[in-house]
Design goal:
Length: 505
């Protein structure tokens, strides 16, 4: 008889795990507290405008393709993908900017135009980054974090120094131009930590950026969620929304049921794909693996102040993705990680999907998504949100040489309190737990409970780490651990220990 698995939450890791587990023959049912699925990757529709509420960058397309390939499908069966050119634009002080285009040769030229001789240094840097990417994807990220030995391979031993140096050190050894340094340090922000705290091995994110490029699913990132939902349902997964999980019931050391909207739901296995810290609060204290002190001492990825803005006109001098690095990055980073407070002069990011995807805004209008990285757990008030919107929109007007304030039809905001309320996010973090040296692989919270039989976890706070592609991988990893213990499997056309093939440019 097939074992029943209940999954808490419906984000990327949940839908990934649900699909693998259903394909293995388990009976899988998802419970989502919100009215719509997707976790942090939900969608806002208002007055003809469409916004992705959370993730907005589509990197590492090989990981997405590998996921769908495991089910004899392709990305193209579920959504249309377009490679962006330019990938993004970076604004600096003194009205200077650099555009990152869609091929390495174009990017080498942009670097050379900025600093003579830098293209040769970049070629060397990207070659290392590409090697690291292939090692990470083939040998590391598809390992479940159960042993330190997972990190020990012939390739990683040869690169041991990269685990004890940092991105910041390696970039600054070769590059002196501050604008180029900021561009090269930017990708590791997706890992949730400062470049000065991120192991140099993670330069593979630079290859994900420059080598694999930036993509856009037509209709927005939520199309990926809808595609994964369609796949999961085709495999027999049942998804319940407006279903708040209030407690995980343990009997004789085993996870036996959950309480959903005051109703008891029995199960053979419980998988928590919600925020890991929140998942443990659903247990009696004696069954929790990690204390409040443990969580307090972790380095969390930032929270965010987000604005979703409808503009009554088309905007100029911007691209689909835009980074505003016209203030001091190090000062802003200190305000997030060292002495948490609201930054006086924040860096920010903006995207306008309607520039390349006309269906996301009414004709002749523009949708704007603005993001300011913030320390998790800081004060969040309507007055602070308004103050910071005024700060960034004034700078936006100056840097892009246009007036837009009078063309705002509406704006919605989302910040620390909303991350807590909507996602039960620890201190309102937006990206989970940072990938620092002491929070990598086996040093992250475990996929499998050490105290409760039949209880598992997945998502951004566990292995392999923050971000959308790692969340897909996390779902696959936890499915592998469950199958290793319960052996429900029928014959599969893939291995739960498989990974995307190495990519060569």
């Amino acid at each position: 008889m097939s074992k029943k698995i209940v999954i808490i939450g419906s984000g990327f890791s949940s839908l990934s795990a649900a699909s693998y587990l259903a394909d293995l023959g388990y009976v899988v049912e998802i419970y989502e507290k919100n009215p719509t699925i997707g976790g942090r990757a939900r969608q806002l529709k208002k007055e003809g405008f469409t916004f992705d509420i959370g993730p907005s960058w589509y990197w590492m397309p090989d990981v997405f393709e590998s996921f769908f390939n495991d089910f004899n499908c392709s990305v193209s069966d579920f959504y249309t993908l377009e490679k962006l050119n330019p990938a993004y634009k970076v604004f600096f002080k003194d009205n200077e900017s650099i555009i990152i285009e869609d091929t390495l040769d174009k990017i080498y030229k942009a670097f050379e135009d900025e600093e003579k001789g830098s293209s040769l240094k970049l070629r060397k840097f990207i070659k290392t980054a590409q090697d690291n990417y292939n090692i990470a994807i083939k040998n590391l990220v598809y390992r479940p974090g159960v042993s330190p030995l997972e990190l020990v391979t012939k390739e990683t031993i040869q690169r041991i120094g990269q685990f004890f140096s940092t991105i910041s050190k390696e970039v600054r050894k070769e590059f002196k131009n501050e604008k180029l340094i900021q561009i090269l340090e930017f990708p590791v922000l997706f890992l949730g930590a400062k470049p000065s705290d991120t192991p140099a091995f993670y330069s593979f994110m630079n290859y994900a950026d420059f080598g694999l490029g930036t993509w856009h699913p037509k209709g927005g990132m939520y199309q990926v969620i809808l595609g994964m939902e369609k796949l999961a349902k085709s495999l027999g997964v049942k998804i319940n929304t407006d279903s708040n999980v209030e407690k995980i019931i343990i009997e004789n050391g085993k996870a036996k049921s959950i309480i959903v909207n005051s109703e008891k739901i029995d199960a053979d296995i419980v998988l928590c794909a919600a925020d890991y810290h929140h998942g443990e609060t659903l247990l009696e204290p004696k069954y929790r693996q990690y204390s409040e002190k443990y969580w307090e001492n972790r380095t969390f990825a930032p929270s965010s102040l987000l604005f979703y803005v409808g503009f009554s006109k088309k905007l100029k001098n911007v691209n689909h993705h835009n980074l505003f690095f016209d203030t001091d990055f190090d000062v802003h980073a200190r305000d997030i990680y060292d002495v948490p407070k609201w930054p006086e002069k924040p860096l920010f990011y903006a995207n306008f999907t309607s520039l390349t995807d006309s269906g996301t805004a009414p004709e002749g209008q523009e949708n704007g998504f603005f993001l300011i990285p913030l320390a998790p757990g800081i004060e969040d008030t309507p007055e602070l949100r308004e103050t910071y919107f005024e700060k960034i929109i004034t700078r936006f007007e100056n840097l892009t040489n246009q007036n837009v304030k009078n063309n705002i039809i509406f704006k919605e905001s989302f910040c620390v309190k909303d991350f807590v309320k909507e996602y039960n996010s620890y201190k309102g973090n937006a990206y989970g737990m940072a990938n620092t040296l002491l929070q990598t692989a086996f040093l992250r919270p475990k996929l499998k409970s050490k105290k409760v039989q039949g209880l598992f976890f997945t998502g951004q706070l566990t292995v392999p780490g923050p971000g959308v592609p790692p969340s897909l991988i996390s779902g696959k990893l936890v499915a592998g651990l469950i199958e290793a213990q319960y052996k429900q499997s029928k014959e599969l056309n893939y291995s739960l220990q498989s990974e995307p093939k190495a990519i060569n440019s």
